[in-house]
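Translate sequence into structure tokens.
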Amino acid sequence: MHKDKQFLRRVILSMKKDKGSIPKIRNAVKYVKSSPSRLDSFMECAADAKVSYKGVVVLDVETR
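Result follows.
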């Protein structure tokens, strides 16, 4: 449990340092999900790279 807290703290600190990465990830998810062919290509790339995943990319809800 202690290691989980340390990991989460490091993630939060790194996100605070680089505020531009979250919008870039959000835009990339929008781009992939906007086209069925892009989503298929994403799934193929994930399979080729042997990335384990449990679902498709998820777009978080933007706040006002």
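Note: Residues 19-64 form one domain.
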